[in-house]
Specification:
Layout: H1 3-15, E1 20-23, E2 28-33, H2 37-47, E3 56-58, H3 62-68, H4 73-82, E4 87-92, H5 101-104, E5 109-113, H6 118-126, E6 130-131, H7 146-153, E7 159-160, E8 173-178, E9 181-186, H8 192-199, E10 204-205, E11 227-229, E12 240-243, E13 257-260, H9 267-282, E14 288-291, H10 300-311
Parallel strand pairs: 1-7, 3-5, 4-8, 9-10, 11-14, 12-13, 12-14
Antiparallel strand pairs: 1-2, 2-6, 3-6, 4-5, 8-9
Helix pairs in contact: 1-6
Length: 316
């Protein structure tokens, strides 16, 4: 099917209130018309997503964005620099935006992003914003291919728009702009270093309180079936190994399976491979996935964030 035909099919399904998986540069999103409450409710149902966890609204252009959220000079500058791209801005919600309250879970802010590629083309053709969290069961590994979506949620979707493997591989960076302060709520495909270089000031890290302010802030998230052990220097018999770089830890030859995020130690390549490699290792059925140390800079910040949430204790 041509891209044009695929976009037309996706738009028709969304316009009818049905769920569609769409590719972005980060991961595949589970999309519904953000103005249609029943369609948005379908996202929460399909994912098994907690109703207190807000959704990101995706837009096609700045005009659409400015009908939904209130931009100040700093947030407008960030959008100018990094949209379309892997950046989500948490901004004050405009009255009369048309965004259904289920999307924002009652908050007076909205998480807003302009994606690259086919997802943006779909939104433009639809003429309305879409709500689109990652297209996976809540708390599980995010999908970076159409096949990964099919394996997890395929029976619950009207259509999967196949755009090939995603090229960033981790979700968008989420920033909350409050006056002159830029707060990092979730590291992602845009690094802190890139943001700070653009705005000429340091960003503040972490939420201002215990409440969920944006997607991706749950302690346990992005998890495979296997348990995850971080910063592994020694590999125990029976473990699967998520490796990084050219050198292996002690006992690596005893691993039931090995996937290397990047043989050359490239963090951008590692981010692109993260979820697919976790899924591949999980299929071996090991009780534990041991993860070699990943540097905590650049995209390594986002990779370590996802891995720490994958390793967190899970609700029983």
């Amino acid at each position: 099917m041509s891209d044009r035909a695929a976009i037309e099919r996706a738009v028709a399904e969304l316009a009818a209130g049905r769920l569609v998986a769409v590719p972005t540069e980060t991961v595949y999103g589970l999309a519904a018309d953000a103005t249609d409450g029943e369609a948005v409710a379908g996202i929460f149902e399909a994912k098994g997503r907690p109703r207190f966890n807000p959704l990101i609204v995706h837009v096609a252009d700045r005009a659409m964005a400015e009908r939904i959220a209130r931009f100040g000079p700093l947030s407008a500058g960030l959008a100018d620099c990094f949209w379309p791209g892997p950046l989500t801005l948490v901004l004050p919600l405009e009255p009369g935006s048309g965004i259904h309250p289920l999307v924002t879970v009652g908050l007076d802010t909205v998480a807003l992003r302009m994606p690259q590629g086919l997802a943006r083309d779909v939104i433009a053709a639809l003429g309305r914003p879409i709500a689109a969290p990652s297209a996976n069961t809540s708390g599980r590994i995010s999908p970076t291919s159409a096949q990964a979506v099919q394996d997890d949620l395929g029976s619950k979707l009207a259509y999967i728009l196949d755009g090939g493997p995603t090229n960033v591989g981790v979700e968008s960076t989420i920033l909350k702009v409050e006056g002159d302060t830029v707060r990092l709520l979730r590291p992602g495909g845009l690094t802190s270093e890139e943001i700070e270089a653009a705005i000429g000031r340091p960003i503040v890290t972490g939420s201002a309180g215990p409440a969920i302010e944006a997607p991706g802030m749950l302690v346990s998230h992005y998890a495979p079936d296997a348990s995850v052990r971080l910063n592994a220097q020694r590999i125990e018999p029976g473990e699967a190994l998520l490796a990084f770089g050219p050198n292996r830890g002690i006992g690596a030859d005893q691993a039931v399976a090995i996937r290397n995020l990047s043989e050359k130690g490239d963090l951008r390549e590692a981010a692109a491979n993260l979820y697919a490699d976790l899924q591949a290792l999980d299929r071996y059925g090991a009780r534990m996935i041991a993860v070699e140390p990943i540097p905590h800079h650049g995209l390594g910040t986002a990779i370590n964030d996802r891995l720490s949430r994958a390793a967190a204790p899970r609700a029983q």
